[in-house]
Amino acid sequence: MNTKTQPAPLAMCRKCGAKAKRTGQPCKMPAMKNGRCFLHGGRSTGAKTPEGKERCRQAAFIHGFYVEENLAEWRRVGAWLREINRRVKGR
Questions:
Q1: pLDDT tens digits, one per residue of 9-46
Q2: Is the CB of residue 78 less than 8 Å from the CB of residue 84?
Q3: What's the 3-state SS for 72-91?
Q4: Which of these, 47, 28, 25, lies nearest to 37 by C-alpha position?
Q5: b vs e for 36-66, b when ≥16 Cβ sit within 10 Å of the residue's Cβ?
Q6: Inside any domain, residue 31
Q7: What is the count of structural domains for the chain?
Q8: Is residue 82 part of a domain?
Q9: 2 falls within a domain
Q10: 0.70 surpassed by pTM
Q11: Is the residue at 83 inside a domain?
Q12: Which residues span the domain enclosing 76?
């Protein structure tokens, strides 16, 4: 078989081999270079450089609601509202 033009059939590929907890059967997914499939550890091991780690941190940033600047603003607004309520009830 010419491997340059046709991919190898799954039956001939090296298998992952990770054991299933419940059945004890080995995983039948094709293995990657490290010997495991993408489900059992064959993908990225994570960012190594400071630039890559910063990019991951920025990608995981969701909304910023709980960052320190926003918390300080919410505290200020809360104090302002408490002061208004105190004055209104004091009438």
A1: 777 888 888 888 888 898 888 888 878 888 887 667 78
A2: no
A3: HHHHHHHHHHHHHHHHHHCC
A4: 28
A5: bbeebebeeeeeeeeeeeeeeeeeeeeeeee
A6: yes
A7: 1
A8: yes
A9: no
A10: no
A11: yes
A12: 10-43+64-89
